[in-house]
Write a structure and sequence with these properties.
The structure holds two protein chains of two kinds. By secondary structure, chain A is mainly β. Chain A contains no helices and ten strands. Chain A has a five-stranded antiparallel sheet, with no helix packed on it. In chain A, strands 2-10-9-4-5 form a five-stranded mixed sheet, with no helix packed on it. Chain B is globular and about 40 Å long. The chains are: A mainly beta, B mainly beta.
């Protein structure tokens, strides 16, 4: 079976840094995607990790530890528009990138 | 690149009716996926096409659900004899057929069963 665990909700202050953790247990693993989803909108791609380590992309960074089944998304210099759900999605090996989504973490950024 | 397009955006129907949704992927994308999302949950995988071939169907997809991608371009998802539990957002995504390319999602079709 597949299991993805993320905190349900987080709050943070504008300008701060927040880290959203994700642990996963999947039958086979290829890589891990992070998506952002604003209420009522489509998920949008943020980052992808396949090797262990940190991938940095502007204000967003993502980290992966394959041996620990662990990833995090780091958001720096938070802005009000970063209030959204953040979805952790491992992909299974041997396939075509079928995404297995967690329930997501709802982040609220306050002034 | 006009993005993934889905229509209708909203569909309200009575229980027992049939509904059909359409997805137009990004034009050069070979891979097309359907997901279902309910409130407070992440999207759940339903089915996957590579060009016109449907290569995987989730066990979530009962016999009342059918999807097609007849010419390897747009896709349709039909639900027959709708039930209350079918109320959800139905998302379509597409990607290139190269390694670990990200999936690009449409805005979805929100289905409400009365």
């Amino acid at each position: 079976g597949q299991n993805i665990d993320q905190p349900t909700e987080m709050t943070a202050t504008e300008g701060a840094i927040v880290q959203i953790n994700c642990t996963y247990q999947t039958s086979g693993f290829n890589g891990l995607f992070w998506y952002q989803q604003h209420a009522g909108e489509a998920p949008t791609f943020l980052s992808y990790n396949v090797l262990d380590g940190l991938e940095e992309k502007g204000r967003f960074s993502s980290f992966l530890s394959r041996s620990k089944g662990y990833s995090y998304l780091l958001l720096k210099e938070l802005q009000m528009k970063d209030s959204a759900s953040y979805l952790c999605a491992p992909t299974l090996s041997g396939g075509y990138n079928k995404l297995i989504f967690g329930a997501g973490t709802r982040l609220a950024v306050h002034p | 690149d006009t993005g993934v397009s889905q229509n209708p955006r909203h569909k309200i129907t009575k229980r027992g009716q049939n509904v059909t949704f359409r997805c137009d992927p990004i034009s050069e994308h070979n891979r097309l996926y359907w997901y279902r999302q309910t409130l407070g949950q992440g999207p759940e995988f339903l089915t996957y096409f590579q060009n016109e071939a449907q290569l995987e169907k989730s066990r979530l997809l009962s016999d009342r659900f059918s999807a097609e991608r007849p010419k390897g371009s747009f896709s349709t998802l039909e639900i027959q004899r709708t039930e209350q539990g079918d109320s959800a957002m139905y998302l379509c995504a597409s990607s290139l057929n190269q390694g670990n390319q990200p999936q690009h999602f449409g805005d979805g079709t929100r289905l409400s069963i009365l």
